[in-house]
Write a structure and sequence with these properties.
By secondary structure, the protein is α/β, with parallel strands linked by helices. Helices cover 37% and strands 19% of the residues. Strands 3-2-4-1-5-6 form a six-stranded mixed sheet, with helices on both faces. Helix 3 (87-95) crosses helix 4 and helix 4 packs antiparallel against helix 5. InterPro entries: His_Pase_superF_clade-1 (IPR013078), His_PPase_superfam (IPR029033). This is Histidine phosphatase family protein.
């Protein structure tokens, strides 16, 4: 069994129009949301043993905040080709993951993450899969399991969406406690 965690970067700042898109930092809301998602993931045992991350500043900052909040630093490979990557690049990257890793996380961007998640799923019509396809908010997480021993076998139509979680949903869960 292999587990893929698709984490969209947290909310980024648009205040300075002179900053290149690749270099946009997180805004306050993003800096608040990333640790919330990280703590949720740690509490739920959703911790990767390897991370793929776009080289964009907002994805790197999201991952840094995740590491600080969880006190975990799994090995990371930063990849320029994950910046605004499409489905093909994301799926190919996932399938290149070393088989020694059971749980891998990819920190990236939309619409590529939402499209890749849909591409990987067996059941694209479940309520959570439909929700994910309609809106994959910043700092949201899709957890996809694959009944395979090798990442190379985690291809289109082979994954099961175990859960789709947004920062807003976590806040709602916290309010109910």
């Amino acid at each position: 069994m292999k587990i893929l965690l698709l984490l969209r970067h947290a909310k980024s700042s648009w205040t300075d129009p002179k900053i290149d898109d690749h270099d946009r930092p997180l805004n306050r809301r993003g800096r608040d949301a990333a640790p919330v998602m990280a703590r949720y993931m740690a509490a739920e045992g959703l911790v990767p043993d390897f991370v793929w991350c776009s080289t964009a500043r907002r994805t790197r900052e999201t991952l840094d905040l995740w590491s600080l909040a969880t006190a975990r630093t799994p090995p990371v490979e930063y990849r320029q080709d994950l910046y605004l990557a499409g489905v093909g690049t994301i799926v190919a990257t996932v399938r290149r993951t070393d088989d020694a890793h059971r749980t891998a996380m990819l920190v990236g961007h939309n619409p590529g993450l939402a499209h890749a998640a849909q591409e990987l799923l067996v059941d694209r019509d479940s309520p959570e899969a439909v929700e994910l396809s309609l809106k994959f908010p910043t700092a949201a997480l899709a957890v996809i399991s694959f009944p395979v021993d090798r990442w190379a076998d985690a291809g289109p139509g082979t994954g099961k969406l175990e859960r789709f979680v947004t920062p807003r949903r976590i806040s709602t869960l916290s309010d109910e406690d």
